[in-house]
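Work package 3, deliverable 3.1, input record:
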Amino acid sequence: MLARLPRGFADRTADDIRAVEQMMAKIRAVYELYGFEPADQPLIEYTDALGKFLPDQDRPNEGVFSFQDDDEQWLSLRYDLTAPMARYVAENFERLPKPFRSYRSGWVFRNEKPGPGRFRQFMQFDADTVGTPGVAADAEMAMMMADVMEALGIPRGDYVIRVNNRKVLDGVLEAIGLGGEENAGRRLIVLRAIDKLDKLGVEGVRQLLGPGRWDGGKEGEGDFTKGAGLSAQQANRVLADIGVVEALGDGEFPSSQTFADGQGELMQIEQLVVASGYGPDRIRIDPSVVRGLEYYTGPVFEAELLAEIPNEDGQIVRFGSVGGGGRYDGLVSRFRGEPVPATGFSIGVSRLMSALKALGKLDTSSTVGPVVVLVMDRDTDSLGRYQKMVSDLRQAGIRAEMYLGGSGMKPQMKYADRRGAPCVVIQGGNERNAVDENGNPRPMVQIKDMVAGAELAANIEGHDAYKEARPGQMTVPEAELVGTVRGILAAQRAERG
RNA sequence: GCCGUUGUAGCUCAGAUGGUUAGAGCGCCGGAUUGUGGAUCCGGAGGUCCUCGGUUCGAUCCCGAGCAACGGUACCA
C-alpha cells in the first residue's frame, strides 16, 4: 500500500491554514462593511440544480464529481458557490429580504486536468446581490473587489478590476452577422478565442477566429483546433472592437443596438465608480474581458494582479486573474417563473494566497510553538511534577506541552527545536532536590531560551564546548517558572518587532 | 483528449557498451551511566532502478505496450 495524494489535491500545512484564515478575515471584514450577510450551503447539491447539464450514464463525471444516491438521483460536488446560492435563494425566496445581499466561502471541486496553480479542490469567497436589476449593484461589486484587494495589502497599481459587458460582445457578434440561434456554436468559439488573448496573443486569437490553430504553435505540431471560420474582415472587426488592433475601414459592418446598450451600461458604471473616487488606476473598462462563458448576461468583471511576481524558482510569473464575476440574470429565475436579476463575484482564495505569499504580503512566519517541558525522569512522581508545570503555564495562557514521546534528552531537544518552542523546561534530580543556603528543600528548574540559545551557539566551536556552555539557559526556583517563561516570551516578542 | 519531456533512496541527481554487491550530496535515525538543538566527527536505516511483456546465458540499461508525473494545448457548465 503506497501512501499517495490524488493529483490535483493539496495537503495543507499549519502555516497555510493560518495564512488563509488571516486572509479570509480581511475579506470578510470588507464584505461586512458593505452590508453583506454570511450564508452557507452544503458541498453537495442535486446535479441538475448546479447547471443545465446532467451527467449522462456514459460520462457521469465530466467536469464535475458526481454520484448516485440510493434513490438513483444524481448528486454532485459543487463546482462554484454561485449555483448553490441561486438554489438557496430560489427555494427561500419569500422569506428573504430583497435585494438579498450575502457572502459565503468554501471548497469547490472540479474534475478537470490539474495544472500549476490549478487544483481539483480549491476555495472561493463570494459575495452576491440578488434581486437588483440596476448597474449600481454591478458598480458596487467592482468597487468592493478593489477594496478587498487593498485590504489584503496589494498596493494600488499592482492590481486592476477590469470591467466589460457581455452585451458589448454580443453586439459585436451581431454586427458581423453572427446573431441568431443558428450561430450560437460559432459565437461560443469566438468568445473562447477572445478569452485566450492573454495566453495566445493577438495573432493566436486571430487564427482561432479564422480557420484554426495548431496546438504546438506551428504547422503540424500538436492537435489542430478548429476556429470560428470568420473572414479576415470579420476577425479584424472583432479584434478592433475589443480594442486590441486598429480598426480598418469603417462601415463594412452595421453597428448594433445591443452593442450600444452594453456600452451605455459600461458608461454608467464608469460614472458611478468615478463619482465614488475609483479612477482607472483601480477600475478600468476593458472590452476584451470575457469571463465565464455561459451564464453571464450583462456586466462582467475580473480582478487581475499586475505585479510581476517571482516564484519559488525565481522566475517571473504573471498571476493574472484572481477573481471575477458579473451579472447572471438567468440563474435564479431558472428555478422560478419570474425574472430574478442578480450580480456577484468570486475570489479564488487558494490562488490569491499563493500570489500574496510570493508578494510577501502574507505573514508566513509560523506561530510561536509551545513551551516544551522535557521529561528527564519517568517515575510517576516526576511526571506529575512536569504535568503540573505544563498546567501552570497553560493557566497563564501560555502554549505548553510535556514531551510525550519515548526518547532521551537529546531527541527531546531536537523535538523542541523542530516544534519552534520558544523555550524548554528542564528538571532532573539535581534541580528537583536542590536546597537553599539553610539546607531546606528548594526545587529549581532550568529554563532554556531556544532563540537566544541558537544565537549564542553560533559562536561556539566544537561540540564539547557547546555542550558545556549551555547557552541561553538559566536556573530559577520552581515557583518562578511561569514568571520567567513569560519574561522570555516578552523579550522574544520584542525582538521580533 | 492531443503533442512533447521525464520516471534510479524521503529530496536533488549520478551511473555502466548488457555482466557479480547500484552510488553521491542533502535529509532522517543513533552515538559517553545527570543529560542540551546548531556545526564537526563516527555509525546506521532506507531501493521492485515505474509496471508488464519481449530479445538475451544474463536487462535498471535494448525493443514493445501500459501507467504516472511534468509542460504545452483543448475542454472547463
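Residues 371-496 of chain A form a domain with the Rossmann fold fold (CATH 3.40.50.800).
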